[in-house]
């Protein structure tokens, strides 16, 4: 049927899987692959809009339509519109839902009649840019929502995740409250969404309504995933930089624990010292060993095994930090066995505060491309250039992926 109203639908294929259906103006429909609500949300959070965003930015900053502050050219406006209408095609493959919604919004915008005001063309151009950014804006909201509801919430229930979310963003309660849905989805059930935001809100409500799947954040790569079991899970099954996240994540987690634990740092110093003694002793000629501490291969291996077992007992809580150090300091190198408790990471980093304070917080626009900074707290202040990534890492310090902290250095 021609001239039908375009609609964005979400249909239950069974009680767990849902399909997004694009109902076009010509009456035809496109049914996208079905997935669980959690899978829909993760997939939407990972769409790479970076090339698309760059094209929008170029259009905004370089098109001749915006160059003149005093006179707006109709020819320039028409050229601007022609270029703007080409951009949604970049999303056709990577984000068919966003592509579909943009088509409807752009069509509505272009049907507006000129009100005769001098600023009409300028307002119309800015509105087109705002519409083009709609899929990006929806993803920004979603990423911040997932950060609040899922990051660090592995031991929480679905209800606790939902309460944390609406406690942070109260405006979302009417959009993604599972209590507003029927008790259980049934095959063939269909919901209609009038925007990308409302579609994501509906998928969030369906996600919070069930407890068979939960969304967790991988401690290594910082991407979201669905754990296979109810057991607390910290790493996904992806490969990042050619290595499994589980493999590198567990390794770098040991580094992080050691950096935060004075007893483990002292153990590392003792190990380095024992190894250096073993090298000096074994490579020295027999006649030159009288002034060296006798540590050969066998003695070093025995010390290492003793330290390994003691370390395991310490990490299991069977030894205190002082008991652990006394047990491994067989040559009395340490002057003091008193260690401070492990320092916990900061409760809230500047990054977390910005996310919690604004659901629309977008790091791509928040951080400038580069800034010059002068640290007056040093004896010899020097100007330094800080990139957007430098500024972001500074704000995330203490709450960041293991890959960001170790692997990218």
Oligomer: single chain
Strand order of the largest sheet: 3-2-1-4
Low-confidence stretches: none
Q: How would the global form be characterised?
A: elongated
The value of Rg in angstroms is 29 Å
Structural key phrases:
409 residues, alpha+beta, 3 domains, four-stranded antiparallel sheet, two-stranded antiparallel sheet, 9% strand
Give a verbal description of the structure:
With 409 residues, this protein is an alpha+beta fold. The chain has helices spanning 37-45, 50-62, 74-84, 96-110, 120-132, 134-150, 158-168, 173-176, 196-209, 245-260, 262-283, 297-315, 321-328, 350-357, 363-366, 388-396, 402-407; strands at 7-12, 18-23, 29-31, 190-193, 216-217, 224-225, 239-240, 243-244, 370-374, 383-387. It folds into three domains: 1-217, no CATH class; 262-328; 353-407, no CATH class. Helices cover 49% and strands 9% of the residues. The strands form four sheets. It has a four-stranded antiparallel beta sheet, with helices on one face. The chain has a two-stranded antiparallel sheet with strand order 5-6. A two-stranded antiparallel sheet has the order 7-8. The protein starts with 6 loop residues before the first strand and ends with a helix. The mean pLDDT is 90.
